[in-house]
Amino acid sequence: MSAYNFAYLDEQTKRMIRRALLKGIAIPGYQVPFASREMPMPYGWGTGGVQVTAACLTPEDRLKVIDQGADDTTNAVSIRKFFETTAGVETTERTRAATVIQTRHRIPEEPLGEDQILVYQVPIPEPLRFLEPRETETRRMHALEEYGLMHVKLYEDIARHGAIATSYAYPVKVEGRYVMDPSPIPKFDNPKLESAAIQLFGAGREQRIYAIPPHTRVVSLDFEDHPFVASKADHACDLCGADHSYLDEVIVDDAGGRMFVCSDTDFCATRQAEGHRGRLSPEAAE
Amino acid sequence: MTPLLSVRDIAKFYGPRVGCEGVGFDLYPGEVMGIVGESGSGKSTLLNVLAGHLPADRGEVLFDTRAEGLKDTLAMSESERRMLARTDWAFVHQNPRDGLRMGVSAGGNVGERLMAVGARHYGEIRGTALDWLDRVEIEAGRIDDRPRAFSGGMQQRLQIARNLVTGPRLVFMDEPTGGLDVSVQARLLDMLRGLVREMGLSVLIVTHDLAVVRLLADRLMVMKSGRVVEAGLTDQVLDDPQHPYTQLLVSSVLQV
Which residues are in coiled coils (chain B) (predicted)? Predict the structure, then answer.
């Protein structure tokens, strides 16, 4: 499609975004403001992630897009198609083969390597937003490293539920300095934030970009007597039998029947191809 | 003896109008100083300037810091001042809604300052919160209730607990009894007096209620139009007022 510049955005915009990305990488966890553009999709559909991806893509890249771990959901399909059309880059569903992965709400199960970039779609970049609504105040709190309030939220969780009930968008401290919202990934994925890949976070409506450089220390906040637990459903995948992957619970009938399947479709499919079987796999069910 | 707080020639202007001007005094450890005056006399402005909530236009506020002795808080970096504000200082607002987090449970409110200075043990934070709720006469069973579910007097007591939990040395109070009915006021004052004596707190208390300062304050400053018109021992000023305005103020107190 020659009517568009490569990857939709014009070169000046991409430069502007790259400058924000570089600043974000230089200050891990710091929210860099950037002049977010109108994208041809509604806010909440990943406009921030799309802009970051557009600024990172080169014609040689191989792109993978996932939504809640799945390659075949609306959001993932439409964004993948968007870049196929506007950038003409190769796309893939295989985690290992991708050079750029745009994700919504998950980190792939397979550990990422140094030659990969993971781009997150972020709805609300400010971890303190629901505790302190004033942006002027939260910025000052970040600047002065006043993060006591974040623990008040965790305290409230324990007081009300007996355990830290926050199960997604679990706050982390990056490189001992900035407290960061890792976007609404399940807290099961938090340990994977310490990765060899470059991790970039784009919030389009909120106009913020932040980043975690490779091999950066990322610590999930907790209490000494209530340590962080990367929890998941206490089952194995019913299709591939994996007991160490994050699972979706699927209701299969109206009689209480349910199954648990890996939310990472590529991970599950790869395992099935390797011959792993779960409780409800076609062969096993017969 | 070094004063805990030494205020020198403080001035704050709102454009051409005077907020407060030429205010200076020393406050010693364990001392309670009352600031009285009618509405608009600049007493809340003064308190807010001293507590660092408003920038001053002139003057010095020297505080006896634990590490470095007397230090001008107005010239401090913001991070230092805010650190002071959540450790050695406390600020009790007139309206508890300004000083409390209404969406957070009573225990969380009390624990916030502890967590802000690095407490990371849930059991200990909760234990301290329970202890403090007891000291301000709030039942232990209400620890997980939100302040919204509390009466005005309880909210005010909770605000006091939340402020005193880190063992501050200097407490700023802006009309702590305003808006409470008299019996609740009496109970609050009684409790405050006990805590002040027990913890050896220095207190700056702003009020228009002379009965409150009579009960709590060792010394008194009377403000009018942003200036201090009279200062001295509380009983001395109230029993033998010298300045015409103070005389008016004392004679205006309603008798039952």
Answer: none
